[in-house]
Amino acid sequence: MTIENDNPELLKVIAADNRLKQLLVNYAGEKLNPENDEVNIEMVIDVLAVEFPELLLAVAEENFIRGYQQGLADVDTIEKTGIPTPPLVAPPAIHTRPTPYGDG
Questions:
Q1: What confidence tens digit (pLDDT) does each residue in 22-55 have?
Q2: Residues whose CB falls within 8 Å of the CB of residue 34, separated by 6 or more in sequence, listed in order
Q3: Which end of the chain is flanked by fewer CB atoms within 10 Å, N or C?
Q4: 25 within 8 A of 44, measured Cβ to Cβ
Q5: What ranges do the domains of the chain cover?
Q6: Mean per-residue pLDDT for 78-103?
Q7: Among 11-20, 38-47, 91-100, where is mean pLDDT lowest?
């Protein structure tokens, strides 16, 4: 799984087993009209991103803040326990061919 978009959870077909799921699945299905009539999580997110971006933004912000807080808590724990951390390694160079500016 890459960070970009390879999350298998997004491709799971939604079982519309409660009223809210039924509403979301039906709405996304009507908007996207999938060939096999199955609506997955990614489809619902895509529709929400267009139709109700405020909801997704609030969820994303909360997720970011919690992740950031967890990272800070992890740093505190490492500093308090004295666990050595591996040295940082510089990322590989991005340019594979020279640019017009002579770098690369």
A1: 999 999 999 999 999 999 999 999 999 999 999 9
A2: 43
A3: N
A4: yes
A5: 1-51, 53-83
A6: 66
A7: 91-100
% of the chain exceeding 90 in pLDDT: 54
- Specify whether the CB–CB gap between 35 and 29 falls below 8 A: no
Which amino acid would we find at residue 90? Answer: A
Q: Would you say residue 57 has pLDDT above 80?
A: yes
Query: Average pLDDT of 60-68?
Result: 92
Query: Are 48 and 23 in contact, with CB atoms under 8 Å apart?
Result: no
Residues for the chain: how many in total? 104
Query: What is the 3-state secondary structure of 2-56?
Result: CCCCCCHHHHCECCCCCHHHHHHHHHHHHHHCCCCCCCEHHHHHHHHHHHCHHHH
Burial class (CB within 10 angstroms; exposed 0-12, middle 13-18, buried 19+) of 28 = buried
Helix (H) / strand (E) element for 77: namely helix 53-81
Residue 7 tokens read as 């999350």
